[in-house]
Amino acid sequence: MRENLIEVLRNLKRCPLESVLAVVGICFGVGGIFLLSSIGAGVRQSIDSEVAAIGPGIMSVQASVATQNLIRESDVQAIAKTLGSQAVVSPVVESSVTMHGRNGDVSGYAIGVDSEFPDIESLTLLKGHFFTAIDNAESRSVCLINTYLVNQLFGGENPVGKQVLVNNIPLTIEGTFEVSNNVSAAANIGEVLLPISTYLNNFTSEDSITEILLKANRVQDIRLIENEVLTQLLRDHQWTIPLSDYSVFTQDNLISSSNSLKHLFSIFVWVADFVSFVVGGIGIMNVMLMAVSDRHKEIGIYLSFGATRRFIIQHFLLESSMLSLVGTVFGILLGTMTGMLLMMKGIPISFNVWVYTEDIGVGVLIGTLFGLYPSLRAATMTPGVALRH
């Protein structure tokens, strides 16, 4: 094996350009496989963490986009009265707005909610306090802003007690917040929370609600609560609208949807990996076929001095595997550096031992499979035919 390895290295030095091109092909092929596999693992982890963070007891009720039977604030009040202590209920209505602070303008969302909202969304107050039920009843011009707006509008300084203009409407900041489960928040989007009555009086002319958020006090009551909510909505509209006009989303629904999404993404990754696999393999096969054609006499001498066909196959397979392994190492390095750059852009990527092991295995497999035909072609030659070329 040692002598074979030395001979392989010597042969690779004879054709440096072809060897480099093969390594480059493997590098990009394996690098693409590595990067796609890492992105796939990152996306799956991101989806799982988002779904798990929502919590098993949280529900969302929305009206169909096409329907004219929108959810009204009175519907939310009736649902809250019907459910009683079974669940915490909060209406949510939002729209895109422009916010103006000391440091300039920022686009984002104004979200009207009531005082029950923090109990559903796992709201984390960083400074100040959340507005009260009295603030909502009296439609006071108060709000809370997320950390993104704190940095963008106030340069990271404490904004509590200061004013922010939301679509040119002045609101007094009572606190700053973060939302841990990200049902309606994103770290890089400006969001203002304000009493829903203030929102309806100043930001819209309609008495319509985007969605109803609920948090069941007991997970086993989710289906019962879902039926009661839908029944109450139909009752409020005098049973004149179809049940299909409303949709209820729970963690189970999201898990089912996320599994379908992960399955489709996995298929895409496998197809892309296959293309990268073939591209890298064709480069290896091309170089090895050229090596066999250029080294007929060498093969003839081997055979004349008693080399077995098994030895010839092993020799060329070792050569193709070495090319593939070198290209795999560079491909993994290229994929890792590219992945780190993409992570800085916010793309979910997961580097784990399985991805690295899988890529090394793929690299060795490429060298073996695509080097097999040239090796067999070299081994089937007869000494006389090989020496005449």
TrEMBL record:
Q: Which family does the record assign?
A: Belongs to the ABC-4 integral membrane protein family.
Which membrane topology describes this protein?
A: Multi-pass membrane protein
**Which UniProt keywords are given for this protein, alphabetically ordered?**
Cell membrane, Membrane, Transmembrane, Transmembrane helix
Tell me if Endoplasmic reticulum is a UniProt keyword of this record. no
Against Pfam families, the record matches this protein to: FtsX, MacB_PCD
Compartments it resides in: Cell membrane
GO molecular-function annotation terms? Answer: transmembrane transporter activity
In terms of InterPro entries, this protein maps to: ABC3_permease_C, MacB_PCD, Macrolide_Exporter_MacB
The molecule here is called: ABC3 transporter permease protein domain-containing protein
What species is this protein from?
Alicyclobacillus acidocaldarius subsp. acidocaldarius (strain ATCC 27009 / DSM 446 / BCRC 14685 / JCM 5260 / KCTC 1825 / NBRC 15652 / NCIMB 11725 / NRRL B-14509 / 104-IA) (Bacillus acidocaldarius)
Ranges for the ABC3 transporter permease C-terminal domain? 274-383
Q: Where are the transmembrane segments?
A: 20-43, 267-292, 323-342, 354-373
Q: Where is the MacB-like periplasmic core domain?
A: 19-229
One cellular component GO annotation, for this chain's record? plasma membrane
